[in-house]
Amino acid sequence: MTTILPGQTIGIIGGGQLGRMMALSAKEAGFRIAVLDPAEDSPTGQVADVKIIAPYDDEEALNRLAEVSDVITFEFENIDYEGLKRLTEKAYVPQGAEIIRITQDRIAEKAAIRDAGAPVAPYVEAQTFAELQERIGEVGFPCVVKTARGGYDGKGQVILKEESELAGAEELFAHSACVAEKFIPFQMEISVIIQRGTNGESRCLPVQENIHKNHILHETIVPARVSDATAEAAITAAGQIADHLDLIGTLAVEMFVLEDGSILINELAPRPHNSGHYSIEACTISQFGQHIRAICGWPLRTPELHRPAVMVNLLGQHVAPVLDAIPVQPDWSIHLYGKAEAKHNRKMGHVTILAEDNEDTLRRIEESGIWR
Ligand code: AMP
């Protein structure tokens, strides 16, 4: 088992905010950071020791990252699988490439979740629109058709209320094969972030409740307002999936909670997740610190919640009003990711608020008027 120590270099593929927060956490312990990203001034590049500016699938750039890094991780799943697989042969990539192959394709991902013994919504897969037309009866309407590859934040999916709307899904096949799944009238969305070390031991952050607006995460509330039985089922399912995938590092498991308290797994992300950002202030170990421990072969710590927490995302349109609120909101921990342009709906940062009463925090967020 390889142990990576402070002074050694962690290479990160991808220079966004997740890489930045991984890097900041690793630098606290004295690691050095190398990052590969096409942007000159990426959020991670701003805090890294070594910047390699090139496309993610540039073989020569990956080789350079391998040369300067003692361990390599990634901050997003849409990287070139074949390139990553070759990289695992010349560099230490403890998470491996297989988890990327699976999670960048909804068809492979759903099969893996099912094979792990965890519950998913009824679905069919279709390589072509004709196949979808043929098989859609197996799930019925309403349903959600999603591209197998490349979708995020609600992009690459359509909801079909009834059969007459089926033609609306045809254009999705221009991108990739698709899955059609039953529309789930869920009560709540939750997520579990599970992290597993090179010794096979895993730890979960507390179960998170997630509120989306326009398919983008808006708020995360911890603890989630679910029964103990639901929280337990969620953690059990995350454990089954992590073991089945031989996880090393981080896996975020997004789930629906139904009216009867049962859960269905929606999707997986093999990296720290927006719904875990609250852990920086609210837990005894953050998802970023734990990720670094996991890939560096350190024993994992059991995350405990210091206080109830709410995280609210800052999109482009929220940045200016939040900066204006700094003088009157001493309890808001403000995180900005160093992105130059505050475009509408672009994730620019987040705010975390710890308080004994999350209902009170949610009311204050609403009253601030910033997120209306
Ligand atoms: P996804 O890209 O799969 O995470 O989907 C984005 C969002 O669409 C989810 O967070 C849900 O709010 C909604 N959604 C996705 N799949 C379904 C479904 N089968 N039934 C109802 N809502 C869904």
Describe this structure in words.
This protein has 372 residues and is α+β, with helices and mostly antiparallel strands. It folds into three domains: 9-93, Rossmann fold; 122-182, Dna Ligase, domain 1 (2-Layer Sandwich), CATH 3.30.1490.20; 188-367, ATP-grasp fold, B domain (D-amino Acid Aminotransferase, Chain A, domain 1, 2-Layer Sandwich). It contains eleven helices and 17 strands. The strands form three sheets. Strands 9, 10, 11, 12, 13, 14, 15, 16 and 17 form a nine-stranded antiparallel beta sheet that branches. Helix 1 crosses helix 9 and helix 2 (59-68) packs parallel to helix 3. The chain is globular. The protein starts with 8 loop residues before the first strand and ends with a helix. The relative contact order is 0.12. The mean pLDDT is 97. The structure holds adenosine monophosphate. The site of adenosine monophosphate has 14 residues, from strand 6 and strand 14.
